Each structure stands twice: as C-alpha cells, then as structure tokens.
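Let's sit down with a protein and look at its sequence and fold side by side. Once you have written the record down, we can walk along the chain together.
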Amino acid sequence: MRDLYKRLNIGPFASDEEVATAVEACQHTALKSEALAVLNVKARREEYDRLHGLLCDIGRLRARLGLTHGANWQGDVANDFSLKPDVERSRHDHLMEKLSQAAALYDTYQRWRRHCPWIVAGGFATITLLTLGIGFLSP
C-alpha cells in the first residue's frame, strides 16, 4: 500500500480542499487516480486513515527494532512506511547493562570478601564510625 499522504506531500489531517489541490498538482497519473479513488470518497478515506495509522505504527516499531528493508526494496512502494533504524538504545538494553554492572560489582565484593575479609570488615567499620560521628556532630 502506498502512503498517499507522503507521496502527495500533505499531512494525514489535511482538509478536503488541500487533498484536492495536491491531487490536481500531482504529475504521476497512477498515483493521481489512486488518490482520487481513495481520498475523495469519505468512507474509503476513513478506512485508509485507519490502515495508514496502523502501518505508520508498524513502521515505527520496525525502526525501533532495527528491522529495515534490504537495498533492493529502497524506493519501492513497499518501503513507504519504513523508517530509518532507530539508533537509540532500547529500554531492555539499558536495563541489561545496569544488571551487568550490578552483577560485576557483586562479583568484586564476593572476591574481596573471600580473599581479604579484614579489608571488607574494616571498610564497614569505617563507614559505621563515620556515620556515628556525623550523627554526634550534628545539632
């Protein structure tokens, strides 16, 4: 399915007059006839808008997951709703990184506890004494 709005350079919420002007200005005869058949009939336009919203959502999801069409699809009708891959990290990747950091910190603690129990005990004692000292000094 073509993205008629994208190909006509208008927004999905364009008025009937804006659609008519864009269709008249279109030089591509197949696109022009398809736009007239779909966007000029109210029931068809409502159905197209519903499908258009769904396909835009799918395109955003595919971009978020890094799924894009191969080079042979570029510029084709099937590529109208594809977006460039989203380079931003997903929430899952962020949480997995935090989990890995916590596991590495715990492993370091366990190694220190096993090999140098007196250092770990001294560190806890120091923190406790500092906390108590700050408690006595504050009014």
About this structure: The helical segments are 4-8, 16-25, 29-39, 42-65, 91-115, 117-137. The longest helix spans residues 91-115.
